[in-house]
Amino acid sequence: MKLGAVVITMGTRPKELNALLDSVARQEGDPVQVVVVGNGAGLPDLPAGVRTVELPENLGIPGGRNVGIEAFGPGGGEVDVLLFLDDDGLLPDPGAAALIREAFAGDPELGIVSFRIADPDTGVTQRRHVPRLRAADPRRSSRVTTFLGGASAVRTKVFQQVGGLPDAFFYAHEETDLAWRALDAGWQIDYRADIVLHHPTTEPSRHAVYHRMVARNRVWLARRNLPLPLIPVYLLVWLLLTLLRRPPWPGLKAWFGGFAEGWRTPCGPRRPMRWRTVWRLTRLGRPPVI
Fold first, then answer.
1. Number of neighbours of residue 149 by Cβ within 10 angstroms
2. What pLDDT, in 10s, does the model give residues 75-100?
3. What pTM, to 2 d.p., does this model score?
4. Per residue in 205-228, pLDDT tens?
5. CB neighbours of 82 closer than 8 A, spacing ≥ 6?
6. Strand order across the 81-85 sheet
7. Which residues contact 97 (CB under 8 A, 6 or more apart)?
């Protein structure tokens, strides 16, 4: 089973990027092929054998990753599975690639694997990095309904069947959009607590566009993927949750601006999931209203 890896970078963390590439090179078994995408930025000197793509402008996270996928041929077809790794992450276990190969080889319905993200100093996994509602025990593996974009592996047949990440999202919720389409096509998603990516603890709100993108893309996600009766329910739930979390006024103002933008701008092709997929998501513990 051939593995590839896609890393996108803005060129601001060359030391961390090279440490990540070293950790990929140390993986046991057949070498993992790597492409590094400079997302609107030049690339530093990289190890021999690493493929590179330098984009003239920042296409956002999903756009940059889609370029990386196509660097392995249409739909990533030169390899069987693609890893997506944050440029400031690190694979501490040289056996991670072997676990990934074993997971996909052992389950032909498995389409996506989400890794456990742990702080390299404390070992703590943030609650938001566990892709399920019951996140109290991050060391418990399970079937899930979404995944973490910068610490994941996707079977390339998924892209070939349902398409890539939604470029227009730029940042936020692009993983859930792909996950819902994959689940609707019959694929499974696993959270594997034994496959670990080290990544320093951060807050998503560090990104200036966080509140606007989260709200806009939440609306787009619903408009693209949910049956009509569930769209207002899903968005009302998230409106109430946002108000309960009491973000600072500038953040809340940006959130409402993004929410309005999500309604007045094109969301891309609409392919509502089947009701059987709604039921499947519900049985997995996360009905698509939250």
1. 23
2. 999 999 999 999 999 999 999 999 99
3. 0.96
4. 555 589 999 999 999 999 999 999
5. 3, 4, 5, 6, 68, 69, 72, 76, 153, 154, 156
6. 51-54, 33-38, 3-9, 81-85, 151-155, 110-118, 188-198, 142-143
7. 3, 27, 28, 29, 32
